[in-house]
Amino acid sequence: MTRRSRAAAAGERDPTPLSEAIQDLVSARGWERNLALGRLRARWAEVVGEQVAARSEPIKLENGRLTIRVESGPWAAELALLGQSLANAVAKFIGHDLVGEVAIVAGSVRGSQAPSAGAL
Asked: Which residues contact 97 (CB under 8 A, 6 or more apart)?
């Protein structure tokens, strides 16, 4: 009798694939939102483009609302105008069930760099 047929005869199941076990754990603990935000932060430039990513960062995802911090008031106004298209791009990346709208706040952005004195 082969090992597989002995396991079947004993009523044992095949082991759960690791990816499935991890997904079950993530779902059971309610970590989907945190993992989605982490994926979004890691690939922010791919989702919104280099220029926007250099001046902004996603900071919170809660109840379908993604909060994005931008470096200045003018950039906050620009991103507010792009609000729905940003929400759509982010939803396409992390899932439509996780984000439906964006909120823009001005503040210091971790990855931003001020232009050099010679750049105009």
From this structure: none
Q: Is 113 contained in some domain? A: no
Q: Is residue 118 part of a domain?
A: no
Position of tokens 């690791």? 18
Name residue 5's amino acid.
S
The domain tally of the chain equals 1
Q: Find the CATH number of the domain harbouring 81.
A: 3.30.300
Mean pLDDT of the chain: 80
pLDDT digits (tens, 9 = 90+) for 3-36: 555 555 556 778 888 877 777 776 676 667 778 8
Q: Is the pTM value of this prediction over 0.90? A: no
The single-letter DSSP state of residue 107 is: S
